[in-house]
Please model this.
Amino acid sequence: MESAPMIMQRKTRRGFLAEGLAAAAALPAFAPVAAAVHHEWTPRYLLASCMYGTLPLQQILPELKATAAEAIDIWPKVHGNQREQLAEMGEAAFAELLSQHDTRLGCLTQYPLGPFGLQQEMQLASRLGCSVMVTGARGPKGLKGSEEKAAVREFVRQLEPHLAAAEKAGVTIAIENHANSLIESPDSLRWLAEFSPGEVLQIAFAPYHLPQDTEVLCRLLQDCEQKIAVFYAWQHGMGCHQKLPREQELLQMPGRGDLDFAPIWNTLRQQNYRGWFEIFMHPFPRGIPILPTAAEVTAEINRARAYLEALPASG
Model:
């Protein structure tokens, strides 16, 4: 016979995922709550293709309207494979698929190519009307103080010909703050914002990789205002680098883990943030959907969206 704690644990796990489905069922595709509560500001939602693992684009694109996303963020292997799907079907067929679902390409995420290998991809982005590309930084790691500042300045200097090409293509390069990277610490983000020559070089802001302290995060958002092209609604939770029970893995999502998104949400609202806003997490292993089916993934994104849009306004 199962003990009472075991029965409760099993019920809790079932209820954890059912909670997301219930929240999504109660939420219209384009929920009016954000406009009602936060007046002038509604996020420009972007949907990451990798949230659905390697599902076909034909299954992912119909989900955009349900999540209130304006556009798709296409990821390559190993996190997804939709960039490879795009290449296989061809640009014309991809553009037609976007048109069929009344959406567009908002971002190309390309970590494998790095910031110095994007020039050919910029041309693809330009042809498809995509204005943002996300990648990681290159440079020494683990620096502090003046050494870190000098390294960030040198990184931006090395980027100059690539930024010129991006400007010509009408594309912004957004560098994500990533663990074990030159652009990792709050100060490195501030210096990247300071040394950025304009809109062509911006930030993909990932709270997951930063101190899980709302005061630190909000101050950093204020310091980097006007330089953030993509904001990931993503917290650390229990991490994403080892296999965890599903309910623990999902603690990366807004409203699941310990991070209070209310001050962050209100900081963005007060700034009238107009960059992309992406509800996000990583599964383990990479390349699988965050939940077994497309419908469940969409429901979990909508649960997070319902939590965010119900946060109390301040200021």
Summary: Residues 38-309 form a domain with the TIM Barrel fold (CATH 3.20.20.150). The beta strands are 44-48, 71-74, 104-109, 132-135, 172-176, 201-205, 228-233, 276-279. Confidence is low (pLDDT under 50) at residues 1-18, 28-38. The CA atoms of residues 28 and 66 lie 8 Å apart.
